[in-house]
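Worked example (supplementary).
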Amino acid sequence: MKQLSRGAFALPGTSLDFKTGTWRNEMPVHTHWGAPCHVACPAGEDAQAYIAKMMEGHPKQAWEILVQANPLPATTARVCPHFCEQACNRKHMDQPIAIHLIERYLGDEAIKNNWAYPVDVSKEDGEPVCVVGAGPAGLSAAYHLRRLGHPVTLIDSLPEAGGLLRTAIPVTRLPRNVLDAEVGRLLKLGIDFKPRTSLGRDVSLEQLMGEHAYLFLAPGAAKSRHWSVDGAVPSDLREGLGLLKEWLVVGDIPKPKSVAIHGGGNTAVDLARVMKRAGVADVHVITASGLPGPDADPKDVLNVVPREFEQAVEEGIVFHAHRTIQRLLMRGSKLVGLEMVHLKKLPGAGGRSSRVAFEGTETVLHVEMVVPAIGEVVEPQGFENLLGHADYFKADPIGQIAGSDRVLVGGDARGDRGTVTAAIGDGRLAALAIHAKLTGGELPDPKRRPFIDYDKLNVNYFEPAARAVEPMLALEQRNDSDEIEGGLNFAQVTHEIGRCFSCGNCLACDNCWTLCPDNAVIKTVERAADGSHYVFDYEYCKGCGLCAHECPCGYIGMVSD
Amino acid sequence: MDSTKLKQEIQERRAQMQSAPKEGVAGQHNMEELRKLQPRYRGLEAGHRACQGCGEALAARLVTEAAGPDVILTNATGCLEVFTTPWPQSAWRLPWIHSLFENSAAVASGVEAALKAQGRSTKVIAQGGDGGTFDIGFQALSGMLERQHNILYVCYDNEAYMNTGIQRSGSTPHAAMTTTSPPGKERMGKRHMKKDLLSIIAAHHIPYAASASVAYPADIRRKVRRAVSIEGPTFLLIHSPCPLGWGIESDISIEVARLAVQTGLFPIIELERGELTGVMPIRNPRPVTDYLKLQNRFKHLFTDDPRARKEREHVQALADHNIEIYQLRGEGVDALDTDGADTVRRGGVVD
Amino acid sequence: MLHALEGSQAIAQAVALCRPAVVAAYPITPQTHIVENISKLVADGKLKCEFVSVESEFSAASVVLGSAATGARSYTASSSQGILLMAEVLFDIAGMRLPMVLTCANRAISAPINIWNDHQDAMTVRDSGWIQLYCADNQEAIDTTIQAFRISERTELPVMVCVDGFVLTHTLEVVDMPNAEQVDSYLPPFTFKNKLDPKHPLSLGTLVGPEYYTEARYSLHRALEKALPEIESADADWAKICGRASGGLLTVDGPESASVGVLAMGSVVSTLTEANEILPGKKRVRLMKLRAFRPFPAEALRQACAGLKELIVLERAFSPGCGGILGTEVRAALAGMAKPPAVRNFAVGLGGRDIPLGTLSKLLDAAKAQGNEGFSILDVEPERLPPEDR
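After joint prediction of all chains, the assembly is encoded as:
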């Protein structure tokens, strides 16, 4: 029996005998949500994670996190429209984190310092897989298959790997030394790369099926879609992608006085800029889409990197948004102009939306040349049996082609992708799926995971800070060979990573530890197993929820006990 | 995302976490050992019996952490005394004495006199709630300040007699509902104003007096360290929400405290020898209704009654008055303003 | 060494000899001269202590509560309203078992306001858990003050030394003031094991619930009971040093054969002693000086009353609507005797009314008229009141 002390004094810290944890209805738990940047990235990059690693002062480890998903970060940093930044929660406070510039910094550092992929090259204990097409999707699949220990044969009809990165993207956006460094590093992972090997000419699908456990098809979309205006076509018609490829290889481009490029993608904008720089006085882009802007519906804008659009406008390209070409004005077989009309995508009957042209909004544009850049379809040679009469392959979200168990497809050949990053993501998903099928593991889940919304963060703990701005060549300095955009230096990158909200992940800010009235949040010496730096002492935690409410990152949730 | 869905998702995540390998997860840490390794001084230990989300418990923890181990505490009767020391347990790791409601400052004076007589340099911190400081213990406090004792007096201000069941005190803000200032046909909560204690304290011409808020822990720490380093009487008024007494959920007591500061209703100021020497500027003053509407004690100000509107305007005028007389309006971004003071320092104005 | 000193000055010097570390006080007549004298000793550098001039008696008591808890020998003095204002703290000090000494310059209580002597102040806080010792003259006040520190520190109970306001505090008497060596040899330095100390951080003044509150109060009761022998030994030990005792718990004077006894506390005992000496031999009474009122020495009292037929309790306060306080307690204590004397109970000298030598004879006469359970105010003159208020 406890005996009363004289004067009823008590000994220090004896309240620990009283376990206030029994009062609790709800308990705090660490909950690692997907960050919006991570969830939005088609390639599966976890920007929040590599930024956190950068914050800790480990750029190489940060890059290693990055290349767990995407083997070509210096490339995607330059060509991706940056879905991560569009999703970034920071946009609700001021401007999104310049994630692509952090990615670019890490990618360039890796090239500069010859960092090796965290991949065991000697591991070859898997099953042989053949990848058809050495573009972004094929390279990504080959890379991930090698990470997982499968021998990989990579074939491509061209002499060099890179696909459209090499054939369709101007060096002013993607310098070839960057591309060469990343592709070269990737191919050195023990990939059996067979260039100049064309399916249907040098090797057949059946042959490949016989020699490999699985096939991943990433041939891209190299055949221009048929284009005419009510059946009329100028006799000297050239389509956009072809012109761009020709310019990239031989450096030649037609130089009419004026040109109208029809289309709303990167090919249209890239070509417009190339032609403008080549001396074409009037360059017009006619697109059914809207232009990027604060009030624009993201589903209804040009499918280009927003900065590319801004630069194009700077350079004098004239955009005609929400328009289509209704009639070609010909003198004989020569084009002298065209008639445009306003149109808009409107929801029609049955929920499908269709483009509606508005009578009475016709205008005439006097141009000497029209170039269609309305997209490409799969070149069917060698795939006839799989493709039938379709323009693209039909596959489930992980790339499995129905009816062909051992064949998966990804990238532009699917017809529903459209970015390098999506292609890289396809390659990764397919590699994981192939690995799972070969090892009896669980198939990857392509569904978007839940991510944490802005309103689940406590932004009282973040200061406004302006987004870093990349250096850019002045208009008069731009030419056909120098990269227009530059990267950030270390100090600028440090500033930029400091802007990250660390959505859904522990920031090690000490708020929970500082604000627990009950001393029930305990700091750990090393990082705790759940990735945080703290543990809850449930013997004393009363479940007040202060830590959860004051967590800046939404990393703490309250669940019923 | 609505809260049910959020909860459901957290539950799912938690289920995933529980099925994950249990390598060193929370339950497997040796909490007792880890507790000893915490890189801060523990003046107030876990296991005390404060309500969930208690602002006073948090404030006392922060004060004792910042003051360190060479301290003797006195305590007026009140919640803090009751929830920390139900015999045979004590949550204090510092020497601590409670005598009565109204004499924390006088007991502290005696402790300090004894230490002086014994040639010891231990610092004395007297603690009290707003009842024990603004009202019943005010005389003893005034005497302590006048006699220039080397004591830091900390008032945890939760704006009513919470320990006895939420009765109005001299610190209860205008229009607040308490059990002795209920709204009704003839009244809209407390008729009188919150006593301007700091001005009275300042009139004692003491070296340092300041206000602080639990929403700004770094500011509390800085002020406690400042105060204890001064030889002489110092005073700290810490705004400490009471979830029960204010009618708020336990998880928003910091949020509410922050709003009290950001609206201007609880100005954070520093006074030296009676002169205003520092304020926490408000970057973007919030309307008082943002603060009031979160609290049940102001619920009657959000009815159809025209008197409710008048009182809301009155409270807004009181906040505006504070902003004006203490010049709380910040110009531009300041690392130590109401928006910057406790940020996690990722980016922002300090780098 | 003999000095002609005012009572207050004598008490101040006695306090100084005990080397208190902290003295806190607030002025109230007739206590003021005591603390003024201590202040002067501090100002002159003759007493090294922290003298805290507080803003109220409430704070005076609170300051010594704090200083005692910090392990410092502590002293305060007050009177009348001051004692009542302190009341809440006095109970707290005793309950927390904090040793200290307080001089109560006994004075009447308002209303009506009256600054002169009686015992109503100390009587009002009799249940506070303090030891109360009453002094009959200034020599006793000096000696009791010194003894009080020893009793307090040994029992861990606070001690109130009661001296009659003006009658003692403002009266010049020839007293023998002990020297420092004598006091130092008697009173060791104060050590308090439960003191506030960061090295051993105890929490004092905790909340005790119904499970232990009864035991806490019981332990205070037992502590006071156990203080009885400490009071006796403190007096006896001091007598060995200075050759003079102050009366232990109570003293008995007068002829052993007397069948009537008179019991009183404080300076009135000196008056009664003188009056008793001038009474005719056969009328002389057994005169009892009760020194320890708390703890109440019931057993010693019963022994002192052996053989008495009648005991007259004369006191300087009363409980309106009930009667004498001391008288009621004496009646209760004697009820256990085989042949208890009949107890008569009178109050006298309230609010400073003079108690002349003739009081004893008047008392003996009045006792004959009073019933066994009665109580009267000896010197009241009801005709000074309107009839309806008599």
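Two points are worth noting when inspecting this output. Chain C touches chain B through 43 residues (CB under 8 Å). Chain C has a mean pLDDT of 97.
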